[in-house]
Structures are given as structure tokens and as C-alpha cells.
Design goal:
The complex is a heterodimer of chains A (246) and B (611). Chain A is an alpha/beta fold. Chain A is 34% helix and 26% strand. In chain A, helix 6 links the parallel strand 7 and strand 8. The longest helix of chain B is centred in the C-terminal third of the chain and has 44 residues. The chains are: A alpha/beta (246), B alpha+beta (611).
């Protein structure tokens, strides 16, 4: 197994394992994975369902406890961090985007975006929030509530919310999974532009088209990294995925 | 954070209306009971009113605390996903706690705002009931006190904040990852807190059951009447374990709706337990306390019937030997005495019933030996004075000074006079104004009709049997009135708590209902399945409430056996049947309305629109 060494890692996993259940029913969702997600790069994680790709993302983001190994965000050890430290990291150094948007329905787009800053005890300036919304092309929807927005728009608000704190790493779990192809393309364009501007992104997806927009693709099967690919097009990714799904 | 609280309130209004209602009515009930208690104590109305209002106040505080905390815990439970989301975007545990406490503060304030005027309405109803049943004089009114505003707002805020504290601690431990799961993953069924609370209250109920028989008639009755509350709380604490198990035993029928309902009860353990909780308390309190009350009354009546050896009771003095055919007359004159017991700091003066008797006649008629000579007195069946020692006795218009208590007749379940005085002690002037009742036993072979005719010239005559029956009826009607005042409004409040929890439960089930419908169920089938589920949970709650009530009945059996020698249980079955019918009707109707309303939109619109 070779380790990617193009740049110092944004997130590094060393021999990480995560086991669900115990005894004979135990499932090794992530099995001794050593992997670097490079700084300033966009890495896609692919694999058949049940391959452990979401669990890997959750472990890398400090959302899921690991049963073995170490997770490093920059030079911060996540595996030994307590709840308060992880909460602080979520406010400042980590951003999340999910398949189901997970916006707070009671708040407007603007308020949703400002929420991480307010939780961090900062008084977010309107201009910062507006600028972040503008960056995802939704400056004119600032006062709408999530239910008044389309799926693609909601996902862009979610990206704005994740980006408003200027995180070191953006974790995205199937960000286009609930979107139609047009909305998905808009979101992927946005992520591409962010990666080009130097944002580190780790994305789990099952869509070869989405994975092809990333700088590199890591393939997972049965909780292990089985393959990797850089600079491939959608067809190339799909063929490789198909090979591993067989 | 308060801004978020406000936004949260506006969004999840169905949850919060329920919580608000529980606070407002709880505050109203506590405020009214407190004002009436203060007013009754100030206006020196009937002696029975003050202790009864004390019980009403205690019950109101218990119910308010219980209903509010269980409603709040339920609403927090229903929002686990929202709270996890907050954690996901960087909210700390402290912030989640503060958010929930902030909401509780708002709800407490607003709830009290509604509760204060509602309390005036409740007070009008309670006053009317008490006047109607003659616990207070006709002119009695509950008086408004300015400081009650502070108490009511304090109560609202305190109960709301205390109610949410435990739930907030739990919620703060929600893991952020739970936001990603569709239904906010089922919470742990039995928490350590539930075990501790359940075992604690179970032990409390058990202790009361064990101690009650040793508490004498008054103490034993009081303890037995208090068993149902802790027993109910214990049942509620173990609810998530017990409710689904019992609900599964309810015959659903084999159809697809039955199995869906059964699966739902099993799956949503905490929801089932939350819906059952106020119902368990309602049933335990109403069934336990009315059952205990009527059993004690029946036990007292039986005891009196067994121990009274008389043929006629005359409401007038019957001089011995005045009527031919009469073997024994025990003429008993009732006086109200201020009795002082103890000395120094322990000195305590109470107004007690005293009975002037002829010891030998009293012994013959009531079957219990009393030996009195000189200034000696005896403790009567009502207890409340020491069996040996000295008491100071003041009668209206006569100070008897210190008297030695030399004997005691056994205390009775039905109570009675606390002091038995020999005839020579009381001045004739004091005796003349007091009512005298004569128990008359006939000579063998005497003609009852003739004797009765003779006795009737002295005063109203009843056969002993008729007199006992009338006495029993009066006692049980007093018990019933007390129960109505004590339990009536409280029961209504608990019933509203039941409705509340069903509405809250259904409000968050729209999506689940929609999923069932796109799977192929018709709207009517979804509603029917929800109804079956509601009935199963109601049946489980009825059983658990009955179990809690039976703990009280154990205490009743042990106490009546210890005091009267005969274990007595006399249960008002029609009332129990009515409670069960009302519970089933209310939960059924609420479930129908809420699930019908939750399914009014086409399912696709719900499943497509996702936040």
C-alpha cells in the first residue's frame, strides 16, 4: 500500500478500525485503514454500499469513535479529543455537508449560515454571512426558510454554513445524493471552485460523475482501501468501481 | 441562545402548545389551591376544609410537577434530531442545555401568564364545589392576594425548568451523528435515572405498605391513601419496559393493521411510555384513593356494627329505668373540648371531641371495658391523646383542669370521641346544652314496638341497624365529596396531560404515516392502526395504574386487619369501570382526531418535502 505524499495531509488516518457489534455478529466497518487526505485537494471516497465509506468519513471527522488507530486533523489528534475539544473543532476547523442538507427548519438561510459563528460566541457581521451566501449564488435567498428553497438551493445553503467558519477541511457525505442532475452539477461546480481555491475536501459518493470531479478517488471494500485513482474521467471511475463491485 | 429558543418555539408549535398547556393548567391548579387554603385558614371555616385543602394543594403540586416534567421530557425526546444537528454545526453540550432551559424559562413565564387568570376560573369551580358540599360556609370566597403573582410565576418557571433539567442533561449527551440518521435513532430505553427513580419510589411505596398497619387507624389510613402516588411514579419510571410488554398482550387480531400497530408499540417504546405516563398516574390516584377511601369507610361501618350491642339509638337522653323493657342505656353526651397535652415546649392544645359516659353502660353497649373513678378519664376510640398520663381539659364555660388518663378503649377505624369523661366531672350547665345520644339495649322478651313507642316520646328513635346504615351513608358521602374535590380537578388535569401526550406523539408522526400510505395503506387504515396502537397503550396504562392502585389496596387490607381484626376491601367497581371507559374514549377520540389530521395532506407532498 503506497501513501499519497503530494502535500502535507489535511487529515491523516493511521491504522484506523471501527467495529460495530461484538462477538460473531461483529462487523468491521473500517478495517485497519491508513490514509492521508492531502491539504488543498479534493478526495472522493467510493465503494459499494456497506463498504464502510460513510463510517470512514465519520471517523475522519471525529464524529465516530474509533476502536483502533489514530486520526490526525493537521497535527491535532482527534482520537483522544474530548467532547468539548471536538465541539470546538467543529466550530472552527471542520465543516460538514450531508445528503439530507440538515438545515434547521426554523431558521432562515441567513440564520442557518450564521449559526456556527453564533454558537462559537461570535457576533457574525451581516456582510460576512451575505458574502458567504453570495459565494454559493444565493444572496437573494437570504431570508427564505429551508422549506421555501429547492433541494439544490438547500444544499448550497448547507455548504455556505459549512464554509462560513473557514474550515481546514470540508467533509461531504453524498452531497449530491438527493439532488437532480442540474442541481448536482451546480453543487459540484461550487466544490470544484472551492478546491481550486485551495480548500481541502473529503467527499463520500456513489456517483462516478461526482467522483470524477475530485482530484483523486479512493476505493473502499469491506472496510479496506482497495484502490485509488487520480485524474480519471467519469467513465474511468465507473469502470474501476464496477470492477470492485463484481 | 434566547433568539434560537424563540425560533424553535415558533417552528414546533404543536409540541410547545402541549407543554404550555401543561404549565398553564398546573399553575392554575396550584394557585387556586393555595389561595383557597390561605383563605380558609384565615376565615376559620369548617375544620375539615383546611386539611383537605392541604391535601388538594399537595396533590396539585405533585400532579403539576409530574405532568409538566413528563410533557417536557417527551417534547425534548421528540426533538433529538434537531438537537443533534445543533451539535453537528458546533453547538456544545452546555449550549444545548442552555437552549432547552431557555425554552423552559419562556414556557414557564408564558404558561404562568395564562395560568394566573385560568387559576381564577379554577378557584371559582373549587369554591363552588366546597360550598356545595358544605366544607365551607355559604359566604366563603377565595381571596386574591397580590403576592400570589410571584408564587404563580415562580411556580411556572420552577416547574418548567425543573421539568426540563433531567431531559436537558440527557439531550446534551445526544451524539451529533444522530442528526444523520433518519429518525433520530431510538433513545436508550431505560436510563440509569429511570432505574434509580423507579426503585426509589417503589421502595417508598413498599415502605408505606409495610408501615401502614402499625400506624393506628388515623396514621394507617393516611399512609394507605398515600401509597398510590409513589407506586404510580415507580410504574411510570419502568414504563418503557412494562408498557410495550403489556400492550403486546392486547389482542389486536391477526390482520395486517394489528401487526403494524403491534410493531409500532414495540418500536416506539419511549413514545408509548410517555403516552401511558399521565394515564397511569390518573388511574392509580383515582382508583387507589377512592378504593382505599371506600374500603376504610366500609371497614369502619363493619367494625361499628360488630361492636355495638344495642337495639335502638335515641337522639336524646334516656334516663335509666324510665322505660320498661330496657335493659341497658348508654347515654352519651358529646362536647367539644380544648385538650392540652404535654408540658413546656411540647405543650399542644387541640380541639377534640369528648364524650360524657356512664362507664358500665358504655362497656355493655360498645363491648369494651372502661373503668373510671374520681377525676380519671379514658382515651376514646378516636385516639389523639396519650393512653396514660395527664391532660388539661377546657370545656365551653368550664375549666376541668388537669385530669389523669387511666385507661384507653381500642382505637377504631371509624374514629369517634378522643376522651371519655365520667358523669360527675362536667357541670350540669355544660351538659344541658350538649347533644346526647342514647344507645338502648332491650331486656330479653321485651316488645320492641312498645319500647320504641315509649322511647319516641323522648326523642327521635332509630333501630341500631338503621342508625348504622345512615351513619355509613353519611360517612361515605363525605368521603365521596372529599374525593371529588381532591381528585376531580386533578384528574381532569391528568386527563389533559394524556391528551397532550397523544397530540405531541402524533405531531411528529406525519412522516411515518406518509410512509405507511405510500407503502399501500389507505388513510383509513393508517388511522385505524394508530387507533389500535392507542388502545393497546391505554390498556397497558390501565393495567399499570391498577397495579399501582393495588399497592394501596394491600396497605388497606393490612391496616384494616390490624385495626379492626377483619381485612376489608370494598371497591367502587362502577367508578373503576367509568374511569376505564373515559380513558379509552378520550385516548381513542384523541388518537382518531390527531392521526386523521396528521394524514390530511397527500403522503407524497410530505415525503418529497424534506428539510
Amino acid at each position: 500500500m503506497t501513501t499519497m505524499t503530494m502535500a502535507p495531509a489535511a487529515v491523516a488516518l493511521h491504522g484506523v478500525s471501527r467495529v460495530f457489534g461484538r462477538g460473531p455478529a461483529a462487523v468491521r466497518a473500517v478495517d485497519d485503514v491508513t490514509l492521508d487526505f492531502p491539504r488543498g485537494g479534493w478526495t472522493a471516497v467510493m465503494g459499494p454500499s456497506g463498504s464502510g465509506k460513510s463510517t470512514l468519513l465519520h471517523c475522519a471527522a471525529g464524529l465516530e469513535r474509533v476502536d483502533g488507530g489514530r486520526v490526525l486533523l493537521g497535527d491535532t489528534e482527534l482520537t483522544s479529543a474530548g467532547d468539548a475539544e471536538l465541539t470546538a473543532l467543529r466550530r472552527t476547523r471542520i465543516g460538514f455537508v450531508f445528503q439530507s442538507f440538515n438545515l434547521i427548519g426554523a431558521l432562515t438561510a441567513e440564520q442557518n449560515v450564521a449559526l456556527p459563528l453564533r454558537l462559537a460566541g461570535k457576533r457574525p457581521s451581516r456582510s460576512v454571512v451575505r458574502a458567504t451566501l453570495d459565494a454559493v449564488g444565493l444572496a437573494d435567498r437570504a431570508r427564505h426558510k429551508p422549506r421555501e428553497l429547492s433541494g439544490g438551493q438547500q444544499q448550497r445553503v448547507a455548504i455556505a454554513r459549512a464554509m462560513v467558519t473557514g474550515p481546514e477541511v470540508l467533509f461531504a457525505d453524498e452531497p449530491t445524493g438527493a439532488l437532480d442532475s442540474t442541481a448536482a452539477r451546480t453543487v459540484l461546480d461550487l466544490l470544484r471552485a472551492m478546491a481550486d481555491a485551495g480548500q481541502s475536501i473529503v467527499m463520500v459518493t456513489h456517483d462516478p460523475g461526482a467522483a470524477a470531479r475530485a482530484d483523486a478517488v479512493v476505493f473502499l471494500r469491506d472496510g479496506r482501501v482497495v484502490d485509488r485513482l487520480a485524474g480519471a474521467d467519469a467513465r474511468g471511475v465507473a469502470d474501476r468501481l464496477g470492477a470492485w463491485e463484481r | 441562545m434566547l433568539g434560537m429558543s424563540r425560533a424553535g418555539l415558533a417552528e414546533r408549535w404543536t409540541l410547545f402548545v402541549g407543554a404550555l398547556l401543561s404549565v398553564a393548567l398546573g399553575v392554575a391548579l396550584v394557585q387556586s389551591s393555595l389561595l383557597l387554603l390561605i383563605s380558609a385558614a384565615g376565615q376559620s371555616s369548617d375544620d375539615a376544609a383546611v386539611p383537605m385543602l392541604g391535601v388538594v394543594l399537595g396533590g396539585s403540586v405533585f400532579l403539576a410537577g409530574f405532568v409538566i416534567s413528563s410533557t417536557f421530557a417527551f417534547t425534548v425526546d421528540q426533538r433529538r434530531r434537531d438537537l443533534a444537528l445543533l451539535r453537528l454545526v458546533g453547538g456544545s453540550r452546555g449550549q444545548v442545555r442552555r437552549l432547552l432551559l431557555g425554552e423552559a424559562l419562556l414556557l414557564g413565564l408564558t404558561g404562568a401568564g395564562f395560568g394566573v387568570p385560568a387559576g381564577l376560573g379554577v378557584m371559582a369551580v373549587q369554591t363552588w364545589l366546597m360550598r356545595r358540599f358544605e366544607f365551607v360556609p355559604p359566604g366563603f370566597t377565595g381571596e386574591w392576594r397580590m403576592w400570589i403573582l410571584g408564587v404563580s410565576f415562580g411556580t411556572g418557571i420552577l416547574l418548567a425548568v425543573a421539568g426540563v433539567l433531567v431531559a436537558a442533561r440527557r439531550a446534551a449527551r445526544v451524539r451529533p451523528l444522530e442528526a444523520l440518521r433518519e429518525s433520530g435513532a431510538a433513545a436508550r430505553v431505560m436510563t440509569a435515572g429511570r432505574w434509580v427513580a423507579g426503585l426509589f419510589f417503589f421502595a417508598g411505596a413498599l415502605a408505606l405498605v409495610i408501615v401502614a398497619p402499625h400506624g393506628g387507624p388515623a396514621g394507617g389510613q393516611a399512609m394507605a391513601m398515600n401509597v398510590a402516588m409513589p407506586a404510580a411514579v415507580a410504574m411510570v419510571a419502568f414504563g418503557p419496559l412494562l408498557v410495550p410488554v403489556l400492550a403486546r398482550l392486547v389482542p389486536f387480531g391477526g390482520g395486517v393493521l394489528g401487526s403494524l400497530a403491534r410493531a409500532n408499540v414495540r418500536d416506539a417504546r419511549r413514545r408509548s411510555a410517555s403516552v401511558a405516563a399521565p394515564l397511569i398516574v390518573l388511574v392509580a390516584l383515582v382508583v387507589g384513593n377512592t378504593g382505599a377511601g371506600s374500603s376504610f369507610t366500609a371497614s369502619g361501618v363493619d367494625e361499628l356494627a360488630r361492636s355495638t350491642h344495642a337495639d335502638f339509638v335515641v337522639e336524646a337522653p334516656v334516663p335509666a329505668g324510665a322505660v320498661p323493657g330496657v335493659a341497658t342505656v348508654s347515654a352519651e353526651t358529646a362536647l367539644l373540648a380544648d385538650v392540652t397535652v404535654g408540658s413546656g415546649d411540647e405543650r399542644e392544645t387541640t380541639a377534640l371531641d369528648a364524650l360524657v359516659i356512664d362507664p358500665r353502660a358504655y362497656a355493655a353497649v360498645h363491648g369494651t371495658a372502661v373503668e373510671l373513678s374520681g377525676r380519671a378519664v379514658a382515651r376514646g376510640p378516636g385516639g389523639e391523646v396519650p393512653a396514660r398520663g395527664r391532660v388539661s381539659v377546657r370545656l365551653p364555660g368550664a375549666d376541668l383542669g388537669q385530669l389523669p388518663v387511666v385507661a384507653a378503649v381500642p382505637e377504631r377505624m371509624s374514629g369517634g370521641a378522643s376522651l371519655l369523661l365520667p358523669p360527675g366531672l362536667v357541670p350540669a350547665a355544660a351538659l344541658a346544652q350538649a347533644p346526647t345520644r342514647s344507645f338502648v339495649a332491650l331486656e330479653p322478651g321485651a316488645d320492641p314496638a312498645a319500647v320504641r313507642a315509649e322511647l319516641a316520646r323522648l326523642g327521635p328513635v332509630n333501630t341500631a341497624g338503621d342508625w348504622l346504615r345512615a351513619d355509613a351513608e353519611q360517612r361515605s358521602s363525605t368521603t365521596n365529596k372529599v374525593m371529588l374535590i381532591v381528585l376531580g380537578l386533578g384528574g381532569l388535569y391528568a386527563l389533559i396531560g394524556v391528551i397532550n401526550s397523544i397530540v405531541i406523539g402524533a405531531a411528529t408522526r406525519r412522516r411515518e404515516f406518509a410512509e405507511a400510505r405510500v407503502t399501500g395503506l389507505t388513510r383509513a387504515q393508517v388511522v385505524r392502526s394508530a387507533l389500535l396502537e392507542a388502545y393497546a397503550v391505554t390498556a397497558a396504562a390501565l393495567v399499570l395504574g391498577a397495579v399501582a392502585a393495588s399497592a394501596a389496596f394491600f396497605a388497606v387490607l393490612a391496616t384494616t386487619s390490624a385495626v379492626t381484626g377483619a381485612a376489608t376491601l370494598d371497591l367502587p367497581w362502577p367508578l373503576f369501570a367509568a374511569v376505564a371507559a373515559i380513558a379509552l374514549t378520550v385516548t381513542g377520540a384523541t388518537s382518531l382526531i390527531t392521526s386523521w389530521s396528521a394524514t390530511r395532506h397527500p403522503p407524497v407532498s410530505l415525503l418529497a418535502a424534506r428539510e
